[in-house]
């Protein structure tokens, strides 16, 4: 029975990966940070009472900015595999919190790699680093593959660039089985609510039910290669099962604009959106002429990544990995899940209860 440690287990990918590894028979440990409200909602369905004998999902308090907690947990668990998913993962927020982003996203992975070394686990523990298509930033080649030069465009991407290279360096310097998954955007019904796809499906569902009247977005022309998180965590696992460690691009090879995502979600929810004009004044109107989608420059980024498109040929050839969920299915799953949540919230409100959740 293999033992895995997932940092960032309470996040989108952490939840899908924990589910996958438990299904494969792993003992799964996760690091969660202290928060003032319990935030294990995404993994509650996997919860195992720690009082039962030999639970297979065990959570530990820790933080990517706290070396001691990382060393202590890794020493205790002696994991076969570490999936380093924890990060301040919001690109726009990284412009507001650049130092914290560097601490958690750049130095965090260094701390984990150094813990493997300090504890003498170089030959035992395999390491996965959650690298990102944001590394390509101002793109130098289309589509982007493992050999495409990087050009980061945010404090987040710059921090992830350090993490990418420190992973390569510890592989070469100390012989650690360490690899980077260069994952393009991947989404799901449990995507954080302030990433654009989830923001769109959540808002349109609420607009449809009359619980909200507007959706403010930033750059509608940004293009992304969007896949499903469920498919992408499988690639993370596959990367740690090979004979030799390598870095892989994980992507669908198809891109859509933010505007196209809005249109696909509206179609799925049976809402007709009419687009008018060009540029920042552009608005979407519903059938009765009500403005629904508006551009708010507050959501523009100081430096933007306009377009990303991945080529996952190496993953297909060497890992046998291909994405399974087409774009329309991803949008459908997200829109229907958010419609169900909006219906629940509306029922709560009608009965005089405050729905759970917060606001951006
Ligand atoms: P999420 O934002 O959903 O999850 C991030 C996780 O990291 C959460 O569990 C969060 O905890 C935890 N975390 C954040 N800061 C710290 C810290 N200082 N110490 C400990 N834990 C921390 O991200 P995703 O699941 O979407 O992404 C997983 C990883 O993959 C991230 O590193 C992200 O940068 C990277 N990535 C994501 C892509 C995507 O499209 N989803 C694409 C490419 C890379 P909490 O729940 O308390 O906030
Ligand atoms: P991204 O995802 O920055 O690609 O990072 P996000 O969904 O935040 O933005 C995608 C694109 O949409 C544009 N956009 C908006 N974005 C947000 N969040 N809110 C808006 O209102 C809005 N309007 C337009 C953005 O400008 C951008 O061009 C995600 C994260 O998961 C990272 O951690 C990961 O590394 C990359 O994907 C790959």
From TrEMBL:
Q: What is its EC number?
A: 4.2.1.47
Q: Which UniProt keywords apply?
A: Lyase, NADP
Q: Which Gene Ontology MF annotations are present?
A: GDP-mannose 4,6-dehydratase activity
Q: Locate the NAD(P)-binding domain: which residues?
A: 5-334
Q: Which cofactor does it need?
A: NADP(+)
Reactions this protein catalyses: GDP-alpha-D-mannose = GDP-4-dehydro-alpha-D-rhamnose + H2O
Fetch the InterPro entries from UniProt.
Answer: GDP_Man_deHydtase (IPR006368), NAD(P)-bd_dom (IPR016040), NAD(P)-bd_dom_sf (IPR036291)
Matching PANTHER family: GDP-MANNOSE 4,6 DEHYDRATASE, GDP-MANNOSE 4,6-DEHYDRATASE
User: Which function does this protein serve?
Assistant: Catalyzes the conversion of GDP-D-mannose to GDP-4-dehydro-6-deoxy-D-mannose.
Q: State the family it belongs to.
A: Belongs to the NAD(P)-dependent epimerase/dehydratase family. GDP-mannose 4,6-dehydratase subfamily.
Q: What is this protein called?
A: GDP-mannose 4,6-dehydratase
Q: Which organism is it from?
A: Chitinimonas lacunae
